[in-house]
Amino acid sequence: MATEKEKKRVMVAIDESECSHHALEWALDNLRESISSSASASDEDRLLTIYTAQPLTNLLYFTESPELIESIEQQQKKVSMAVLKRAKETCAKRGVV
């Protein structure tokens, strides 16, 4: 168990894969004391940082039309928002907000 003087931060890298979602669930279940959202814990002790990792798109699309580039960017944003929404829901179910 962590003492009051220890400061722990937990970072989980996630993408749209089930493996990364499982990693988030594992961190929430097994590192609960470090990332608890209780009022008594300091921000440094309970910080859960989530990075949404997206697969790189083919760099050749820069020669394509601006409409195609915008469409790809919009799709990446949709995927990112869906991944973050799922992660937030998973955190909320486990009492971490």
From TrEMBL:
Signal peptide: none annotated. Pfam families: Usp. It comes from the Eukaryota. InterPro entries: Rossmann-like_a/b/a_fold (IPR014729), UspA (IPR006016). Residues 8-87 form the UspA domain. PANTHER family: ADENINE NUCLEOTIDE ALPHA HYDROLASES-LIKE SUPERFAMILY PROTEIN (PTHR31964), USPA DOMAIN-CONTAINING PROTEIN (PTHR31964:SF113). This is UspA domain-containing protein.
